[in-house]
Amino acid sequence: MTTYYFVRHGQAEHTIAGVINDNPQKAIGLTVRGIVEANILREKLNDIDFDCAFVSPYPRTKEAANIILQDKNIPQVFDERLGEFRSGLDGQHSRVFYQVYKDKILPRALGCESFYDVLARLTSCIRDIEERNLMNVLIVTHGDILRAARCLFTNTSVFDEFQVKTPVNCDVLKYTLPIIRKKQKQWT
Question: Residue by residue, what is the 3-state secondary structure of 51-67?
Answer without folding.
Answer: CEEEECCCHHHHHHHHH
